[in-house]
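PT: before anyone asks, these are the final sequences, not the draft ones from last week. 241 residues across everything. Please model them as a single complex and drop the result in this thread when it's through.
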Amino acid sequence: MHKHSKKRQSYVVLLFTAGDLHRWAPDACGKRHEESMGLYSRYILPKVVHFTCGLKPNMRQREKVVPRARGRILEVGIGSGLNLPYYDAAKVSKVWGLDPAPEMTRMAKQAAGFLPFEVEFIGLPGDEIPLEDNTIDTVVVTYTLCTIAATTPALRQISRVLRPGGELIFCEHGSAPDASVRRWQDRLNPIWKRLGGGCNLNRPIPALIEAGGFRIKDLDTMYIPGWRPASFNYWGSAVPR
Ligand SMILES: C[S@@+](CC[C@H](N)C(=O)[O-])C[C@H]1O[C@@H](n2cnc3c(N)ncnc32)[C@H](O)[C@@H]1O
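LR: through. Structure below.
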């Protein structure tokens, strides 16, 4: 096995083990486990998410979708702002960056500091978008539909704020086409979700988008380089039905 793959797998095993300690000593770990998960979510997880979402293969995916955004743009789940450098400034009038996690938004604010367009941050989840109906030209969502707990209400809100002719542009990882990879996605999902701040490995992304009231206009898929259970990507655009 390649040296780097071995190293990466060791990190994954270490993370899974750390997250599952309380199962082996529930009484001793009970309250302390909750506290440490709180600290983990606040201080470690944002950095882990920023690091993993910022890996080269993911950044290449951003390059494929984000420059398509135009006009008044809403990014749902803006995270640490990794998409910001990929917007085509000539086509952007303003970006609203929505995310319920202040630790992520803090990083995004730094990334937005030197951009030639305005970015306004909204600290709310995707099912509480505080913008007027029919006012947004493009909604961008990348590596976030895996994490949003209730995707249909969030997609309904996205549909509400999009103006007629407006588009949802997406790039997400999700359910793989190969049965063997899917089996691993299903097996690992419970622990992955706990450690990954609610991220699911196995969501059927196009079906979720359609269930939220959209028609898919164009769709590409492939395994991007990396750990296969987390690397099957779906990207493209969709419009409200
Ligand atoms: C894996 S990160 C991806 C961040 C960013 N979109 C990117 O591509 O790097 C998932 C993001 O979804 C955000 N999130 C979680 N629940 C959400 C919700 N209900 N509505 C909107 N964003 C949410 C998290 O706070 C986190 O920033």
